[in-house]
Amino acid sequence: MTADPASDPQPLRARLARAAEAGPPSMRMIARFMLAQFQDLPFETAATLAAKVELSEVSIGRFCRAIGYANFKDLKDHLKDDIGDQPWLIKDRLDALRRAPGQREERLSQGLEAEIAGLVGVYELARTPDWQRAVTRFASAPRVLVAGFQTERGLAQYFAAQMQYVRPGVQLVDLSTGNFAEVLAEGSPEGSCLAIFEARRYSRQALVLAREARARGIAVTIFTDRYCSWGAELADELFMVATQFNQFWDSTAHLGLLGNLLINDIFLALGEGAETRLNDIARLYGAFTGHVGNPLTPVAH
């Protein structure tokens, strides 16, 4: 039974959150996409939204009615209750780019605007209960396993390498074995957690690994884009970032920013222990490899 906006005091964001947890898969996918792209909804139409979630306009209309709105236009009319009036960031620079002549400059302007909005979205994720839960787990779990696929492999490697500086027991998953035994067949599930970096078009391995890990009781955190329709059902936390910035190729740069922010919070949660480990690793690097301008230091005296 649909709810009437006039009689139901819940704001749109709360209705979307409720719809994202219940109902048919297509309805949950629409709700999750709209939550992830909430700031961009004023610029969408039923047609553009349907194309992005790969469903029909009829499905968008049916979803809107299911959560209490006559249609997508009616839903957008209620956005002001959630978004309100927000000032442009670095307005002078944005205005200057908008005034620049030529198609390339227009694309740059639109891309910059989208990237800034995406960055704000990353910092909004850092204020959620899911974020704090992930920070606590990554700081305390005996084993942290990190996996990345396709071009996101580099993001996973960067994230794992950073975390290895602040805590022990962090491992980048070896994809060459073809069985993920280091994740699924070693150690106790309660002592392990898994972080997965992936973006469309999604590797089948990412989905299967998340499913198998979750079935074994291993906590799973997925870092992905706003189009991942399967992640929510397979993850304890799902962090979705913007990847479309008016370029020919999706950009996963905000996944790197998200990882940096998460590592910082993990470092703060670990306290003095992390600082001690950082200093120890720096000393070892100085002994075996060394930095430019610094003499090698002995491993032992």
The main sheet comes to:
5 strands, parallel
Helix/strand/pairing class, anyone?
alpha/beta
**What does the average pLDDT come to?**
85
- Specify Rg, calculated over alpha carbons: 22 Å
Ends apart, CA distance between termini: 75 Å
For this structure, what is the CATH homologous superfamily of the largest domain?
Glucose-6-phosphate isomerase like protein, domain 1
Shape: globular
Order of helices and strands: HHHHHHHHHEHEHEHEEHH
Helix and strand arrangement:
Blueprint: H1 12-19, H2 25-36, H3 46-53, H4 57-66, H5 72-77, H6 80-83, H7 91-99, H8 103-125, H9 129-140, E1 143-148, H10 153-166, E2 170-172, H11 181-184, E3 192-197, H12 204-215, E4 219-225, E5 237-241, H13 253-270, H14 272-288
Parallel strand pairs: 1-2, 1-3, 3-4, 4-5
Helix pairs in contact: 1-2, 3-4, 7-8, 8-13, 9-13, 10-13
Structure description:
It is a single chain. The longest helix is centred in the middle third of the chain and has 23 residues, at 103-125. The protein has a five-stranded parallel β-sheet, with helices on both faces. Helix content is 52%, strand content 9%. The chain has helices at residues 12-19, 25-36, 46-53, 57-66, 72-77, 80-83, 91-99, 103-125, 129-140, 153-166, 181-184, 204-215, 253-270, 272-288; strands spanning 143-148, 170-172, 192-197, 219-225, 237-241. Helix 10 links the parallel strand 1 (143-148) and strand 2. It is α/β, with parallel strands linked by helices. Helix 3 packs across helix 4, helix 8 (103-125) packs parallel to helix 13 and helix 10 runs parallel beside helix 13. The protein has four domains: 12-83, Orthogonal Bundle (Arc Repressor Mutant, subunit A); 91-125; 129-268, Rossmann fold, CATH 3.40.50; 271-301, no CATH class. It starts with 11 loop residues before the first helix and ends in a 13-residue tail after the last helix.
